[in-house]
Amino acid sequence: MVALILQDLLFGTVIRAMLTCFGLYGGTSLLLLHKPSILHKVKPRRVMNSAKHISHRGGCGELPENTFPAFDNAIAKGTQILEIDVHLTKDKKVVVFHDPSLFRVTGQAANIRELNYDELPTKFKSHIGVPFSTQTVTTEGVNIKIPLLEDVLQKYPTLPLNIDIKAESDELIDETHQLLKKYKRTDSVIWGSFRESTTKKLHAKDSTVPLFFSMAGTAKLLLAYYTGVLPFMPIKESYLEIPVFSKEKIKSLASLSAYGSKLNIAGVLAMNLLVSPGLFSHLNKRGISVFSWVQNDEGMYDYCFKNGVNGVMTDFPTKLGDYLQKNKISE
């Protein structure tokens, strides 16, 4: 009998201790979620943090992607950041181009890394498909040459850039970093990759250059947020760049697949987890901005900004510029 009483007392003590620990953990997590500066140093505010208008591939829905005509057009329409992609040529030149292969854009069946810069084609296909769209862009009458990153840095010395390191290449990272240092742009660009391995290398190369989350980094961020761990965690990245879809958009995309109903359910679940004003607010308080890619209609611009997204990437800079002006959306 005494043994049973002692056992019950011990069990009760353990349960109370566990509940106390969980209560302290939950309460502290909630406090730090809303007041992260208690534990974390707020990241420095940069000009990119206030950006609402970001042109994907330079605004590839209006002029050929990753080209100076597209960049100039996007700037004229009010873009605040140019999103670009980079690769390395055989002679170690950093070029602004999305695909590793030249074929989709130029028709030439070769990879960029196999050719010297002077050997790259100077003409694009007559029509180029716009990503995430059924539209194409004509190249007729447009003076086109694949740009060097150095030329972009020279031509737009103060305009922020979002640089996607497309290849798994230490040399590409090194050459890109040297250019950023040469033109004193390490504080006015964002760089990163969807690959976590490249993201880690970029951070190791220069932790002062603002970094965007990889896909794996975004998944870890969400797991940490929904388990209450995030408020305790240090974060090396400065920008979260994510796809955002409304329920209507997911349903529309799912209808194109044979697995429509399953994809619709999975997509809605994923977006409910990813599109979280509470998460976005916490990140903002830590100096981390949230950008959505890639939105091309007013309904989705509305959806993003109403859910706490700071800025939107678009293929159509004119459309987004008109929307921001019409709705008087600024910093």
C-alpha end-to-end distance: 70 Å
CATH superfamily: Phosphatidylinositol (PI) phosphodiesterase
CATH architecture call: Alpha-Beta Barrel
| Major β-sheet profile | 8 strands, mixed
Count of DSSP strands: 10
Mean pLDDT: 90
Along the chain, the helix and strand elements come as HEHEEHEEHEHEHHEHHHEHEH
Q: So what's the CATH class?
A: Alpha Beta
Global outline: globular
Blueprint of the fold:
Blueprint: H1 2-34, E1 53-56, H2 68-76, E2 81-88, E3 94-96, H3 103-106, E4 127-129, E5 136-138, H4 149-155, E6 161-165, H5 170-182, E7 189-192, H6 196-205, H7 215-226, E8 239-243, H8 247-254, H9 260-274, H10 277-285, E9 289-293, H11 298-306, E10 311-314, H12 317-326
What's the short story on this structure?
This protein is of the alpha/beta class and 331 residues long. The protein has 12 helices and 10 strands.
Features:
TIM Barrel; single chain; globular; 12 helices; 331 residues; 13% strand; two-stranded antiparallel sheet
Q: How would you sum up this structure, described in words?
A:
This protein is an alpha/beta fold. It has a single domain (35-326), classed as TIM Barrel (Alpha-Beta Barrel), CATH 3.20.20.190. 42% of the residues lie in helices and 13% in strands. The protein is built from twelve helices and ten strands. The protein has helices at 2-34, 68-76, 103-106, 149-155, 170-182, 196-205, 215-226, 247-254, 260-274, 277-285, 298-306, 317-326; strands at residues 53-56, 81-88, 94-96, 127-129, 136-138, 161-165, 189-192, 239-243, 289-293, 311-314. The strands form two sheets. Strands 1, 2, 3, 6, 7, 8, 9 and 10 form an eight-stranded mixed β-sheet that branches. It has a two-stranded antiparallel ribbon with strand order 4-5. Helix 5 (170-182) packs across helix 6 and helix 8 packs antiparallel against helix 9. The protein is globular. The termini are far apart. The model has no long low-confidence stretch (mean pLDDT 90).
